[in-house]
Design brief:
globular; 3-stranded parallel sheet; alpha/beta; Rossmann fold; 5-stranded parallel sheet; 38% helix
């Protein structure tokens, strides 16, 4: 069988642009939605045109025009949504219900990958407010997908390195400190950090794989399963200096969280579950899931010592 034709929705976004690149690199006929709402966002337009130069097809479609979505979906075999789900930027997760409706009507899609790419929302039913909204919204999209009997793969990519590794998981910065660092609790609970290009690579490899059909694909490359303390240790070795450490107890973290703007509370509240509860690694992957690095051992994923070198 040939490679699937793929439609990427949200192709100019943080993960979407990497997924477009990975689709092209893997030899998929790639379509990217160009929304008329783009308006005067020239950087996004130029990115779309660069995709076109690389061989992608641009498709005019809008969430406000059901027929245009249906027409776009009919061109492909697989739909990957990468629309934003980050509250302090734009949160559009529930818009995907319109995409689900279009896929259902088109009737030709053999796999849909909704925009998740983070913590597994199915495991976050007890998440703190207001951050719980992220998982509630993602689960509402899952419910619509499954009720429509649309074949799916969910991607649990854990922590994007750009957000969590480059900063050593500090709040309020994306670059690593060189003098003082805060650790959550004792800093020993394990998390999983991924280079965003690797997230895209694993995602695209899964779309034609029967082993990931109607399952959650967990991205857990073993050498990137690290505690915050271990991540800091990698940075200290790179710069040849030990940082001054402050340990934040859980009650101190929750007190700080309450004083933040709502949008920040939503995102930063997830830190609690990651670093105080170990929600990314405190479970075994069952039959409902699969682990990417085991399925695709040929992917030479970026280790965090290599990732952090650019900041030195």
């Amino acid at each position: 069988m040939g490679k699937s034709k793929v439609l990427v929705v949200g192709g100019t976004g943080y993960i979407g642009r990497r997924i477009v690149k990975a689709c092209l690199a893997e030899g998929h006929e790639t379509y990217v939605v160009q929304r008329p709402e783009l308006g005067l966002q020239i950087e996004k337009l130029q990115m779309l045109l660069s995709f076109k130069k690389q061989g992608a097809h641009l498709v005019q479609a809008s969430f406000s025009d059901h027929k245009s979505l249906v027409d776009a979906v009919k061109k492909v075999d697989v739909v990957i949504s990468a629309i934003s789900g980050v509250h302090f930027r734009t949160h559009c997760i529930t818009l995907q219900s319109k995409l689900v409706d279009a896929i259902k009507e088109a009737g030709n899609v053999k796999r849909f990958l909704p925009s998740e790419f983070g913590l597994d929302p199915a495991r976050m039913g007890d998440a703190l407010e207001p951050g719980r909204v992220t998982f509630v919204d993602k689960m509402s999209v899952r419910k619509a997908i499954e009720e429509a009997n649309i074949p799916f793969t969910y991607i649990s990519a854990n922590l994007f390195a750009g957000y969590f590794a480059g900063s050593l998981s500090q709040m309020g910065s994306f670059v690593p400190p060189r003098d003082k660092v805060h650790l959550f609790g004792d800093g020993t609970l394990k998390a999983v950090f991924l280079d965003e290009d690797d997230v895209a690579t694993y995602t695209v490899k899964a779309i034609d794989d029967p082993r990931t059909l109607n399952k959650t694909l967990y991205l857990r490359p073993p050498e990137n399963i690290l505690s915050q303390a271990e991540l800091i240790g990698i940075w200290e070795k790179l710069i040849g200096k030990e940082l001054e450490k402050t340990y934040i107890p859980p009650e101190g973290f929750l007190t700080t969280l309450k004083g933040l703007d709502y949008k920040l509370q939503v995102g930063i509240g997830h830190f609690y579950h990651i670093f105080y509860e170990g929600c990314l690694t405190n479970f075994e992957i069952g039959e409902e899931g699969a682990e990417a690095s085991k399925l695709y051992p040929e992917v030479n994923y970026k280790r965090m010592d290599e990732y952090l070198k650019v900041y030195v």
